[in-house]
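S.,

As promised, the guanine run. Input:
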Amino acid sequence: MTATILDGKAFAAQVRTRVAAHVGRLSAAHGLVPGLAVVLLGDDPASHVYVRSKGKHTVEAGMRSFEHLLPAETSQEQLLTLIAALNADPAVHGILVQLPLPAHLNADLVINAIDPAKDVDGFHILNVGLLGTGQKAMVPCTPLGCLMMLRDHLGDMSGLNAVVVGRSNIVGKPMAQLLLGENCTVTLAHSRTRDLAAVCRSADILVAAVGRAEMIPGDWIRPGATVIDVGINRVERDGKKRLVGDVDFAGAVQVAGAITPVPGGVGPMTIACLLANTVTAACRAQG
Ligand code: GUN
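Predicted complex:
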């Protein structure tokens, strides 16, 4: 038996269609056009691809996109001045500062300078605290996208064993919080976890977010488990550049009940959730 493939590309298109419809109603009824500002420092090609894609989808959903492309040498003070201006701009409802930032900048300080109500990434310490205490928060986009796919496929997740591999602030930790909110029994595993294979085999839901190409083989997967692969790793195979996840897809698809592919799984959901968070921020700003 092979796993059901969870098609994130199609699901994300549905979410974007719903977001665009909501934006249309807001514009027609209240003259409100949600706006998203994206700030990118430096010339990392992959980050530029992401930012262009965010801008394109923002405009396609009927929202305003404000792109701030700054040199890598931008000072902390200059960046904080820009964030203060975006915080004060009523046309901007969401602010995203693309990470990672150049090493001379203090990312925590920069993120915590964003108005928490405009923090569509959900990285501000206030939103982290709200999520951690089960209160209404801006939820980070990638784990939110994973949760939507899990809910769509599984429905009620109460009592299931969920294992999240990877403890990043962007994915692993908020994912664990969201799964706790679904009444899962959650294990947050990482590079120092003892017998990671056995921990993974206990998972009804396995979320892989470590950023290491195909590090989770098929025989670490419990038969019938739902596998969400957050990894996007660029590798060269047989002389060709390819994108692969953190899970060995060919092995896992034979064992899992359902699995997200890479590409076309979680990736497209991240931008769809960013658009959804921007609309949420705009609605809350309007009261
Ligand atoms: N870099 C990689 N993923 C993300 C994300 O979700 N948000 C931001 N701001 N930067 C990222």
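The chain has two domains: 30-130, 141-268. The domain at 141-268 is CATH 3.40.50.720 (Rossmann fold).

- D.
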